[in-house]
Each structure stands twice: as structure tokens, then as C-alpha cells.
Amino acid sequence: MSRIDKTFADLRRKQETALIPFLTAGDPDLATTSKLIRTLAENGADLIELGVPFSDPMADGPTIQAASERALRAGTTVRKVLQLVAEVRSDCQIPLVLMGYYNPVFRYGAEQFAKDAAAAGVDGLLLVDLPPEEVGEISAIMKAAKIALITLLAPTTPSERMSKLAAAAEGYLYYVSMTGVTGTQKVSPADIKAAVENLQSMTEVPVGVGFGITTPEDAKAVGEFADGVVVGSALVKIIAENAGSDELLPRVGKFIAELKQGLLA
To answer: Which of the four pLDDT bands, split at 50, 70 and 90, describes residue 185?
Structure first.
């Protein structure tokens, strides 16, 4: 059983919702990212989405775009991100999902990427700009490497298409709570509850919800029906505001602990 599957199975037995924070690898630098991953794990995160910085992050709003720019300026590359994962695996076994765009994987070489990512300890891959019709080759490559290819769904996904994607899902499904980019709107739990529950009826794979979740109250409200909540821009903003400060890790740890407590309340 993969780390992702085991984590969700354990949470289901405890009737808990997964807390899935997102941060950009290399922001402000890779050494700090390594410390941040451990801080997230120690304060209640269940899985972590690790953003691979890209120069044209079309799905991301200003906060995460700026984080990608900072990480690229700091010299972050795909190879260095994989090295970071390998280093973290020396003492941290939290599931790690790389989230990003197809171009860096294509440039790296999909087969070599899968081989190196698996060796490093990557558990999943989420490519936000790769449509389902184009995943055939990379899906087979990742499956052979035992890396879950996470599927994105949106409010605009037709029901028939949603059912087809749910049937082929691995790891967990990522339901985008709204149209638009990250970090620009607040989630409205009442507006998405029925859609998420409909999606859950189509699959045994857990359903995580992301975009617009910024507070413990948001997390609690969405966690009432989702299997996981993804928090990205709010965390990335805290990292940006406290980069280089002794307050960075304590403030991140406090934020994550409060989110997790909201899910348990």
C-alpha cells in the first residue's frame, strides 16, 4: 500500500479529514523548504503538495506566482527538488505530491523523471495543465514507477466526464472549488457540497478540495464533507512574510496546527 493510500485509510478509520498544505519548493530556498516540510508534518499535516516552480504558472494567482519566481531566482530546478525529497526521506515519511506543470517534466524526460522521482521518494504527481486526453503515455510511465497521477476536476467538469475521470483516479481526486486561479477568492462550502458528494458517489478514491481555503473555519466547513482540504496561498503568504526570520517556522507550525484543530473540532 502506498503512503498516500495508507494515510487516507488511517484517516478514514479515525473519521478524520486530511490536511494537505501546499508550498513552493525553493521559496525562499531549498534548505528552508526542507525545514518547512518537517514543520508541516510535525504540526498536523497529513500529506504535502510540493510545488515545482515554473516560469508560467497559469493556474496560480499572484501569491504562488511570486513564490515560483522567487524559487527560480534562487536556482531551484526539478533535479534539485528531487534531491530535496530524497533528503527529507531520511527522517520524514509524510506523503509528498509534486504539483506543477508539464513542461518541466517533458524537458526532464518523463521516463527519467519517473525513475528519479520514485528513487527520491515521491508519492504522487499533479500536473495542472495536462488534459486527461493527453495523459496516456505519462500515466503508464508513472504507474510503472508506482507514482500516483492525481486528477484535477472543476465545477465546470461535465458529469459524464467527471464519472470517467473518477473511475481512473489514483491517490486522491483534487476538486477545484471554483473557476479562476489560486488565492483570489474565498471558498463557499454551501456552493460545492453537493458537487463534492456527487463526485464521492462515483469513486472509492478520496476527494480533496482546494482553492479558497484560508482559515481554520474554512477548513472545518469544507472538511464536513470532503476527504481532504488543500491550503496553498494562505500558507505561501505566511512563508513570504516571514522568510529569513526566526519566526518563520513557529508561525507556520502554529497556522498548520490551527487548521488541523479546525478539522478535528
So the answer is: low
